[in-house]
Amino acid sequence: MLVYLTSAPETRPATVCMERQAVRRAREAFLSGRTRPVEFRLQQLHALQRMITEKETEISTALKQDINRSQYDTPLLELIGIENEIKLAISKLSEWAAPRSVERNLFTLKDEVYVQPEPLGVVLIIGAWNYPWAVTLQPLIGAIAAGNAAVVKPSELSECSSLLLRALLPRYLDKDLYPVVTGGVSETQDLLRLRFDHIFYTGNSTVAKQVMEAAARHLTPLTLELGGKSPCYIDKDCDIRVACRRVTWGKFVNCGQTCIAPDYILCEPCIQGRVVECIRQTLLEFYGADPKCSPDYGRIINQRHFIRILGLMEGYTPVIGGQSDASQRYIAPTVLKDVPPHSRLMQEEIFGPLLPIVTVSDMDDAIRFVNEREKPLALYIFSKDKKAAKRMIEETTSGGVTVNDVLMHYTLSSLPFGGVGQSGMGRYHGKHTFDQLSHHRACLIRSLGMESLNLSRYPPQDRQRARRVKRVLRSSLIDMSKRTFIWAVTATVIGFGLFITLLVILLIAAGLNCTCWYWRGIYNYYW
Ligand code: NAD
């Protein structure tokens, strides 16, 4: 049997042993084969669905304590999305897990050819703190659906959520297959020393590099859901009031701590003043005159991030906001205009409630600006000219893109969610999670008959035979794609039709000939 755990020193701290035990139990449970039947996976998904429904209030309370998230926002921003993903997985699982038939070629025409999605084994899910339930449970849904075991490691920064998850999950799901390991950096690093079959990491790109290094030691495939600076271009011809309303919501929800929040605005100088005014009006409407007193406005996760975000503002005079209160880790919704493209604010992901505006001369300049920087996780374009928006999509790249809104592409399970380049690798949501956490096994089932068809590939070869085989292999008939197949059938039918027509013509001609000879005979006889 394969040894899945790396060798360890004789004496190890108790927590390390606990992690090793959790992983070992998950591995053993996986190897028992109980995740293989689709019925088992469905039952676990139903249990997870029950957990979300029954524990909504506890989850919302935990998030209130972690980041002062409004109790109304948690269902809207996290829980409904999770529930919908579970519902989708339950309704589609038999279809997703079924063998997928694929095209055959001339040599496999009589064989069974299909792709069988199968479980990978034990998946490690490492989550971030900003949406601690979504970033751990959404991959978990896919892991369960695909028949894997999964070790869940939530972020230590969202501590209340993390502890609640550890308490709840074993009450609803199989205890051995889906353990929750809590702890911080050292616990995560201990886990990363062990061998997994897939690592699903959500967090920042600096830690992602360490995760990737650890995965490389075991050749473990991984998904990296990272962040970065997601640009938002506002065209001067669009309805600026509506655009700013949508941008203000997407930027300041969860206090700016959203991986796909618009990081900065790009617009022409002629509309900058109007953009600022529209955002100011919207903020007043959303959070009142003092956002600190608004139950809908969040807080920064911890002191470290609080100081980091304030540091980004240094040297600027905000046109909106700028106030802060360290005792509550409160930073007001803040807008900064005419921000130089190479300032510190424009170097790192803000991940907080600061919204810089950088001016560009036109859409082409905006495209250049985006393309000169790392590939973002999301790109937002506000324009009433659909053609121009499509051109901007074509001439840039990003993990995802939404035109005339923000964040909304995340809500569609049919769209793959993930980054590109520095913003991440791999994708998930809906069937994409199932596929990401499955092995797509190539299956070909042949019979032992029709051996004569195989003779040409066996030795000894000679030049003439090799040439003949090459010709056949290069012929378009070899790949029996639907189009080739239809062509072949049509050509055969036409050929056969022509042959029959020719035969009939010949027969008629022969018949006429006979008739001629017959009448000529009669004529000769009587005359
Ligand atoms: P974090 O600090 O909670 O770290 C994430 C996880 O990594 C935690 O479980 C933590 O224990 C672990 N970790 C931290 N340092 C480690 C180390 N040195 N070695 C091993 N493990 C370590 O979260 P974060 O990184 O601050 O998260 C914010 C980032 O995540 C932002 O960049 C954001 O854009 C990104 N994010 C991306 C998505 C997405 O879906 N693409 C979603 C949420 C957040």
UniProtKB/TrEMBL annotation:
The chain crosses the membrane at residues 485-510. InterPro entries: Ald_DH/histidinol_DH (IPR016161), Ald_DH_C (IPR016163), Ald_DH_CS_CYS (IPR016160), Ald_DH_CS_GLU (IPR029510), Ald_DH_N (IPR016162), Aldehyde_DH_dom (IPR015590), Aldehyde_DH_NAD(P) (IPR012394). It comes from the Eukaryota. Residues 20-439 form the Aldehyde dehydrogenase domain. GO terms for biological process: aldehyde metabolic process. GO terms for molecular function: 3-chloroallyl aldehyde dehydrogenase activity; aldehyde dehydrogenase (NAD+) activity. One of its GO terms (cellular component) is cytoplasm. The active site is at 225, 259. Keywords: Membrane, NAD, Oxidoreductase, Transmembrane, Transmembrane helix. Coiled coil: none annotated. PANTHER family: ALDEHYDE DEHYDROGENASE. Belongs to the aldehyde dehydrogenase family. This is Aldehyde dehydrogenase. It comes from Xyrichtys novacula.
